[in-house]
Design a protein that fits this description.
By secondary structure, the protein is of the alpha/beta class. The protein has helices at about 15-30, 70-85, 95-110, 120-125, 130-145, 150-160, 185-190, 215-225, 240-250, 265-270, 285-295, 305-310, 325-335, 340-355, 360-380; strands at about 5-10, 35-40, 50-55, 90-95, 115-120, 145-150, 170, 200-205, 230-235, 255-260, 275-280, 300, 315-320. Helices cover about 45% and strands about 15% of the residues. It starts with a strand and ends with a helix. The structure holds ligand GMT.
């Protein structure tokens, strides 16, 4: 059965926006009618797609409001789109404010629209600690028709921290294996950044928020480069970028740590890389690790949140304790110095990415959730 599905996410750079948009694209390919409801066109909607519609949420500022009324405008737009397009399901990414807005929209319309909420992390691991938001997050989760989380760790943390009663199903993230795959035609890119042939390339991709511990990434890299000629590509931008640049300078690594800022085609950089470092202190999944694995790049990650559900220690990469960058550097070095082990980890990474996190598998799990949500109303109507 196909559905008319509204999707709301943060449309700018960020794993949750990427997952929501890629899911929408796949659902549209499978015949569902997909309506994105967001403040701007999601950045991954970069060409024309059949079955996809976009409804812009225009948030106006009025003197009477101290802050722009994003949540109210979004709820109102959701209700308008539900009515006009006759949506069956609203799939929202983030409990606050998106699930709360969806519940308000549901209350505003006559239709029994089903609200599916996907938790991505920050709404639980950061906002969930805020006593002024805890109750509304719990409300959003308990009142959604279906709730999913991107890892078992996040589902568990949500239950524990918020004492939610609604069942939370884990549906892992995925990457489009047609895009994220090994491709050996990127050698020009290495040349364009003047990276010598004998240098290993280590990569880190994030939004440089404090939780990503980018200073640890630079420190871990310093351990690797002491023994192996190498460079570190730092992709992304955010609050701790300046500190990371300073740290590289202090360690005398200015020429070896290359800050590239946000990049659209990260797959090209992954395809010239040998190893990824993801040393976050909070990470509900770690989509960039999965993107790396799909390209055959093993990852050294931390034991935070859902990272160990993505990276299997000693099989696809290494898991090291949060806040111990020297251990992470040593683990990465060891892997790079053992060619047979490295090759096995690279092969296992590709295999795990395509088997456990395959697009078809994951999109089918979401379809099953929609089906269950939709059927719950039909069954209720039928008595
Ligand atoms: O990592 C971020 O700061 C961005 C954040 C987001 O909202 O996009 O990412 C979260 O959702 C991603 C997609 O599910 C996950 O892969 C990230 O692990 C998660 N980030 C955190 O938990 C810190």
């Amino acid at each position: 059965m196909t559905y008319k599905i509204g999707i709301t996410c943060y449309p700018t750079v960020g794993g949750s926006g990427v997952v929501a948009t890629e899911l929408g694209k796949l659902l549209a390919e499978r015949g569902h009618e997909v309506h994105f409801i967001s403040t701007s066109l999601p950045f991954r909607l970069n060409q024309t797609y059949s079955n996809i519609y976009y409804h812009e949420v225009e948030v106006n500022q009025y003197e009477v409001f101290q802050y722009p009324p994003y949540s109210l405008t979004l709820a109102s737009k959701m209700a308008e789109v539900i009515n006009r397009e006759n949506l069956d399901i609203l799939h929202v990414h983030y409990a606050v404010p998106h699930a709360v807005c969806a519940l308000l929209a549901k209350d505003m319309v006559d239709k029994d629209i089903k609200v599916v909420t996907t938790l991505h992390g920050t709404d639980i691991t950061v906002l969930g600690h805020d006593p002024s938001l805890k109750d509304i997050i719990r409300y959003a989760i308990n009142r959604s028709d279906k709730v999913t989380a991107v890892s078992k760790a996040l589902a568990g943390e949500t239950r524990e921290m918020l004492q939610t009663t609604a069942p939370i199903e884990t549906i892992y993230n995925f990457v489009d294996e047609r895009v994220y795959r090994e491709d050996s035609f990127q050698e020009d890119l290495r040349g364009s950044y003047h990276i010598p042939e004998d240098h290993r390339i280590i990569i880190h991709i994030s939004n440089f928020r404090p939780v990503k511990r980018v200073l640890d990434v630079v420190q871990a890299f310093s351990v690797i480069q002491e023994k192996l000629p190498s460079v570190l590509l730092m992709i992304g931008d955010g609050p701790e970028k300046t500190l990371a640049c300073q740290k590289a300078e202090e360690l005398g690594l200015t020429n070896q740590v290359i800050f590239l800022g946000n990049q659209k085609q990260v797959v090209d950089f992954l395809n010239i890389s040998d190893l990824m470092l993801l040393l976050s202190e909070k990470e509900s999944f770690g989509l960039s690790a999965l993107e790396a694995m799909a390209c055959g790049v093993p990852v050294v990650g931390t034991d935070a949140g859902g990272i160990p559900e993505v990276i299997v220690d000693q099989k696809t990469g290494r898991i090291t304790p949060v806040g111990e960058p020297d251990k992470a550097g040593k683990a990465g070095l060891e892997m790079l110095q053992k060619p047979e082990q490295y090759q096995a980890f690279s092969d296992n990474s590709k295999q795990r990415a395509t088997e456990v996190f395959s697009t078809v598998k994951i999109v089918e799990q979401y379809e099953a959730v929609y089906e269950a949500a939709y059927r719950s109303s039909t069954l209720m109507e039928g008595g």
